[in-house]
# Entry
Amino acid sequence: MWQKIGMVLVLLVLFSLSTACTFTETAFTRTANNAGSAFAAAEVTLTYAHEGKITYSYAASSVVIFQSELSGTDQTLAAQGAANIHTLQRLLALFSPAIQVIDAPCLSNMCNWRKQREILNRASQAFLQAGSS
Amino acid sequence: MKKQWLSIALGIVTATGGFLDAGTIATAGEAGAKFGLGLIWVILVATIAIILLVEMIGRFTAVSKKTYAEAIREDFGFRFYLLPLSSELIAESLMLAAELGGISIALSLFTGISWHIFFPFVALFIWILAWRAPFDLIENGPALLGLVTLSFLAGIIALGGIPAPLIPTLWHPSFQQGTVAEYLYLSAAIFGSTISPYLLYFYSSGAREEHWSGASLLLNRVTAIVGMGFGSMGSISLVVLAAIVLQPLNISSNTLGELGLVMAKPFGIVGSFLFALVLFATCTGAALEVVLAISYNIAQGFGWEWGENKKPIEAARFNLVMTIFLLIAVVIGLIGIDPLQLALFASTVIALFLPISLSPFLILMNDPEYLGNKTNGRFTNIAMIGILVLAFLVAIISLPLAIITGGG
Amino acid sequence: MIDPHDEVFSIRDILDSQLLTSDGRRIGRVADISAEEHTDGSLKLTHLVVGPQALAGRVNSHLRSLFLFFLRDRFEHSIPISEVTRFGPTLHLRGKAEDYAVGQSERWIAKHILRWIPGNGR
# Structure
């Protein structure tokens, strides 16, 4: 009887492990997705500010929150590790300029906001792609 | 007759402020951004549940002249009373900090000043209102302002309505690789944020503050159905807006500021400010309800004087508890956790303790000593059992899912 | 409704009841009761007990001992059953709030803490 119970338990564990692969994301993909989403949101916030859909004050407040959300993401990703080392290196290379934009967003007419938008766009695309793999 | 209708109108408006708060706004935004319309059914089920619960607790208090906390202590004893009390203390301390954070973020979206700076002043603002404002002002002020929530519906119309490709996600949400756990986690969080026990403690106490009686049962029923329905409309509208605007842009709505973009798209600057105003109004109402609910619960449970229509020195322990909890919320808030994440976490904790908070209903609502001939009918009892089963399921899955998904 | 002349009634009906004074003030809830044994073996309820030690004892007897060690009965108060004029979920008391030691923390907090806060209604 105990053998049968043990077999059922083993099967249950195997089943849950196999479903867990698609049931939830890995820590790395979750971090990458969240970062990709934050960069995408920052890109749209910057665009809307310069298109007059939100005030610069609104954008500035939003960006402060993105800063705290993205703070330390590069270290977290490096610690979690990607299946492909090249993917990780590419993400880290794109993270650095993107976080500089978040730390100093162009919220006036005196700077090149379109260039900042491109940087954020590249970063968000790469992170979201890594998050969906 | 006119005054009674006015009471109904104000009652409806009040229920709106109780439904929408930082928690429901946070969960609605994420739900729409990540799963399209696929979680609307959860909001609808939670709405039906909260309508039933609000109607029941209002009926109970109007007829028995006892509040929920008083009845739990008197009917179940002190040892059992400690269970819902403990769960409320933990969950609502977190939720209060989240609501204060929501108000702070709303102010920062208007002004550009960091929400961290606003936080202690917002706590002071809430304290002043709870300290001296009469119950009418607390009940109706933020709620009237919360009518601005109707602008979410206007936003959907301005964006051309729900796009046809989105409609099938109502019954067939699209799951990306590895998002099933997140879907279930958000389901649990939506239940926790909608069926918030603080609303029941506050509503019950408010019925006593306003001297409801057996003649108030119609007012109670209309308030429950139309008021909660109105709040649900606001929540569902936000899901739809997030699905239309944020999902195609791969924005997950992890922060309150980016959620405001859903109103900026159709209405520009006015839209973004309307969102900030909704956030301000609903979180102010909710902050007051949460801090007063904790104070009502403790004062009523321990048999102390209580009441917003009394001067502070006439209900000294009640007002001291209120002040202490605001200070605790300030300490939690100063840790600096993003209010939206805090609201999601608080909703998860509420979901975890939901069965403890709701289980007394089944006994109290069938006790003729309290309710005379106004006890639950068969349908309501079956619905109540259904709600409790749901609450147990949600409680079981909420914490493991929060851990697996990293809190959404 | 409990008849005070009943010889036997449920302790549950008394415990956790609200205490309401003659001037309409809520001063606390019954945490425990004390009784004396008669020669015929029956128990007669003598006092209503209010206080944190009594409450702690309702949760666990060891907790009561712990509370006793720290609080030394400073906050335990008894009200003679003769003070109750009406029984029910709310026990109506003969005297006014200031006549009872129960609820004195309310007066103390009002006098020593809240009075320093503006708008306290004094």
User: Anything to note?
Assistant: The mean pLDDT of chain A is 86. Residues 27-50 of chain A form the longest helix (24 residues). Residues 105 and 119 of chain A are 11 Å apart (CA to CA).
